[in-house]
Amino acid sequence: MGSPPWPGLPLPDGTLVAQVSADTGVPVGALVVLLAFSIFVGVFALARGEAAERWGGVVVLLTPLNIIWHTTTFETLTRDVDWPLGAFNLALLWVLGRLALTSNRPWTLWAAAFQALLTATYLVLAFDLRISNRSAETAIMFWSFWVKFCVLYGTVRVLRRDRAPDGKAASALQDR
Description:
Blueprint: H1 16-24, H2 28-48, H3 51-62, H4 64-73, H5 83-102, H6 106-127, H7 133-162, H8 168-173
Helix pairs in contact: 1-4, 2-3, 2-7, 3-5, 3-7, 5-6, 6-7
């Protein structure tokens, strides 16, 4: 890997992000944005959210472990299905699904639905060998961003509700 996979972003050959980019074909810039956005949303939800948002923040902070786990466990993407990674995403789906069933916040249902689509991508790879690994990685990153947007939306909504003057707007913003 002599030149950086994304022009303008010089990374040494041995960095984790450069290795993941080389293995998956996903540009380094997209991986850096995903990791930075994950950390921002997770920390923001833990610091400013209520219980549901904090659980969402934990899930968001755990999702970059997929990248780290995959890179340190497997040298390159193979045609085999990555069952441990699928099980990890299934556990995150269980957390978000439980949150959607016990919380009265609408964003939790959407986050669980996007996590279900992400987890389903692993199952599709198991049964359809015509799908390329790069396409699957792109779909997984896409659904992962939407999970993070849902958690961010829920946290911002809580902040807006708490800052509303005289409780008038606060009652209008309460989740039903």
